[in-house]
Design brief:
Keywords: Methyltransferase, Transferase. By secondary structure, the protein is α/β, with parallel strands linked by helices. It has seven helices and ten strands. Strand 5, helix 5 and strand 6 form a beta-alpha-beta unit. Bound molecules: S-adenosylmethionine (SAM). The site of S-adenosylmethionine has 20 residues, from helix 1.
Length: about 280
C-alpha cells in the first residue's frame, strides 16, 4: 500500500510514478505469483477457506448481505474478480451459486486448487478457475447474474473504468456488482499500523501510482490511487448505478494487524470502501 516510500538496500525501490495498463498488469502478475505463498500463509487463516470477508476489518458477507439476501444467491452465475485462492467463491458455492473465480496470478489460483483438493470430501465441489486479466474478461456478454471482488484487481489496474465496462458487459441487466478497495483516504497517511500512521503525509489528491521497481526501473509492484469521487465516477462511467458505499467500522473483536490496518487506525479512520452497484 502507498505511503511514504521506504527504500532499503537490495530491496525494490519504492516511488510514486506513472505506470500504464501493461506495466501494471505485468507487475501484478509477477508480484502475486512470487508472493502468493506468503500471502496465503499469513492471511489464509483470517480469510477462512470458505468465508466471504470484504477486507481487513473482517466484515463478513454472511452478516453484511451486500450481495443481497444469501437465500437469493442460489442458482446465480457469479463472477469473482481478482479471486486469489477463491475463498469468497467457495462461500458463494455453499449458498448454491455457480461461481467462477478469476485471477491474473497462476500461483494464487494454485492455492485455490490446493484448498479444493484438501476439502475434497466436503462442500459443493471444486471452484471453476480462470487465469485472466480483469481488464479483458474472457467471457461472453451477459454471462453472469452477479459479480464481486474483495480487494481483487481494482486497486492494481491503471484504468479501472476498463474493468467496470468489462464487468458491465459480462453481467445481465439488473445484476449486482460489489467490490471493495483500500479506502482512498488511506493514501494521505503513511502505511503504518501505529501512531506514525495517523499523521497526514501526502496529498489525498495526488493520483500518482505507488510503484516498487527493480534496479533496471522495471515495476515489480503497482497500486493505483483514486479519490472517493473518482471511484464513484468510474462506477457511473462503467454503466452502473451506485446503490451504497459501505465503510466498515473496526469491530471490537478484531485485534489483527494487516499491513497498515490495525485496531488503532481502524477506530479512527476508514480502511476499506465497498461499492455496491447495479447494472442498468
Ligand atoms: C489482495 S488480493 C485479494 C484476493 C482475495 N479476495 C483475498 O482477499 O485474498 C488481490 C488479488 O487481485 C489479483 N489481481 C491483481 N491484478 C489483477 C488483474 N489485473 N486482473 C485480475 N486479477 C488481478 C491478484 O493476483 C490477487 O490475487
Amino acid at each position: 500500500m502507498a505511503g511514504e516510500p521506504e527504500n532499503e538496500p537490495d530491496e525494490p525501490t519504492a516511488t510514486r510514478r506513472i505506470a500504464d495498463d501493461a506495466e501494471s498488469s505485468r507487475a501484478s502478475r509477477g508480484w502475486w505469483d512470487r508472493n502468493a505463498d506468503e500471502y496465503q500463509e499469513e492471511h489464509g487463516g483470517f480469510l477462512g477457506d470458505d468465508r466471504f470477508i470484504w477486507g481487513p476489518e473482517g466484515l463478513d458477507e454472511a452478516e453484511a448481505g451486500l450481495l443481497g439476501p444469501a437465500d437469493g444467491l442460489k442458482g446465480l452465475d457469479a463472477l469473482e474478480v481478482g479471486a486469489g485462492a477463491a475463498q469468497c467463491s467457495r462461500w458463494l458455492a455453499a449458498q448454491g451459486a455457480r461461481p467462477v473465480a478469476l485471477d491474473i496470478s497462476h500461483r494464487q489460483l494454485r492455492h485455490a486448487l490446493r484448498i479444493d483438493t484438501e476439502a475434497r470430501t466436503a462442500g459443493p465441489g471444486p471452484i471453476a478457475l480462470v487465469q485472466a486479466d480483469a481488464t479483458a474478461l474472457p467471457f461472453r456478454d451477459a454471462s453472469f447474474d452477479l459479480a464481486c471482488s474483495a480487494y481483487g484487481a481494482i486497486p492494481f489496474v491503471a484504468d479501472p473504468v476498463r474493468v467496470m465496462r468489462e464487468v458491465h458487459r459480462v453481467l445481465r441487466p439488473g445484476a449486482r456488482w460489489v467490490f471493495s478497495v483500500t479506502h482512498p483516504i488511506r493514501w494521505a497517511f503513511p502505511d503504518e499500523p501505529g501512531p506514525e500512521g495517523l499523521s497526514v503525509a501526502a496529498s489525498y489528491f495526488d493520483r500518482t501510482p505507488y510503484v516498487e521497481q527493480d534496479e533496471t526501473g522495471r515495476a515489480v509492484y503497482v497500486e493505483h490511487h483514486r479519490t472517493l469521487g473518482d471511484r464513484v465516477r468510474d462506477v457511473v462511467a462503467g454503466g452502473f448505478r451506485l446503490l451504497d458505499l459501505v465503510e466498515p467500522e473496526w469491530p471490537a473483536w478484531n485485534d489483527q494487524e494487516w499491513g497498515g490496518w490495525s485496531p488503532l487506525r481502524g477506530n479512527l479512520i476508514p480502511g476499506t470502501a465497498i461499492f455496491v452497484c447495479e447494472r442498468g
